[in-house]
Description:
Elements: E1 2-7, H1 10-23, E2 29-33, H2 40-50, E3 65-68, E4 74-78, H3 85-91, H4 93-97, E5 102-106, E6 120-126, E7 132-138, H5 141-152
Parallel strand pairs: 2-5, 2-6, 4-5
Antiparallel strand pairs: 1-7, 3-4, 6-7
Helix pairs in contact: 1-2, 1-5
The structure holds adenosine-5'-diphosphate and magnesium ion.
Amino acid sequence: MKLTIRTTSPEETTALGEELGKLLAPGDVVALYGDLGAGKTTLTRGIAVGLGLAADIQSPTFTLIHEHPGAIPLYHIDLYRLSNEREAESLGVEEYVYGDGVTVIEWGEKVQSILPAERLDITVRMTGDTDRELTLETESERLSEAIRGLVRG
Ligand code: ADP
Ligand code: MG
């Protein structure tokens, strides 16, 4: 299942993330792709809200993994500064991915080989100053149904 959604403001991207967050379940993995400033963190902020968490989602300083405890915990992993896959290993990225929370990984391409096949991939493209194109793609039946729900609204 693959579909594209366009947004025209950061608020709209956050709202989309919120709707998505409501549809996610423990163990889900969302891998985000796209240039710096595309809107990956903005989308993640919405996902946190949708999971019922405070939206204190930050871009990374030097911490690559932020744990947000809650009924369904959110593991927000931002690998922008990751130098190699060995470093991902020592950070324990794999344990988060196969853990009980929802894991959202910015720069998912940096750990492609450890990501489960049953994940949700989202590529964010800048198509204008405040225009973004988000392509959602998944091989998972359940996540396919979830993202169909996003379009139906
Ligand atoms: P990334 O995590 O991909 O580097 P951020 O989410 O941190 O990107 O930053 C996205 C930037 O783009 C923010 O400054 C945000 O306000 C701006 N922006 C403008 N339009 C949009 C949009 N439609 N969706 C998301 N962000 C947008
Ligand atoms: Mg970011």
